[in-house]
Amino acid sequence: MKLGTAIAEIMKREGIEILCGYPVNHLIEHAAAASIRPVMVRQERIGIHMADAISRVTSGRTIGAFFMQHGPVRNRPSRSTSLPKSETYFAGHSQN
Questions:
Q1: What would the pLDDT profile of 21-71 be if each residue is shown by its tens digit?
Q2: DSSP alpha helix (H) spans, 3-79
Q3: Is the pTM of this model over 0.85?
Q4: Element (H, E) at 68
Q5: Which residue from 91, 94, 96 is spatially nearest to 16, judged by alpha carbons?
């Protein structure tokens, strides 16, 4: 089993039905193959807002998920250091 397939399976088991994503992230393809509906956005901040909204309008019963192309670069020591391949943001709100 490939890592992307395993991640998509875990997301499916956690109840994620919609995946907001910024184009060119291979995990989006794996999620679509696992019957998780991809919704593509043109700006990363919009995708994060959509994932947050999914969690909020369902009162936390559904986890909002967002995949982006590349994560932010923090404390990068040199230009030769490779960037992270992808970052995942899960928006979830507890019902406490």
A1: 888 788 899 999 999 999 999 888 899 899 999 999 998 888 899 888 765
A2: 3-13, 26-33, 44-57
A3: no
A4: strand 64-68
A5: 91
Calculate ∠ Cα 30-85-12, nearest 5°: 30
Give the Cα separation of 76 and 7 in Å (integer): 27
Token readout for 26 is 């291979």
The first and second tokens of residue 35, run together, are 């019957």
Q: How many domains does the chain fold into?
A: 1
The CA distance from 61 to 75, in Å, is 36
**Chain centroid to CA 60:** 16
22 located within any domain: yes
List the one residue out of 20, 35, 34 whose CA is nearest residue 69: 20
Residue 96 lies in a domain: no
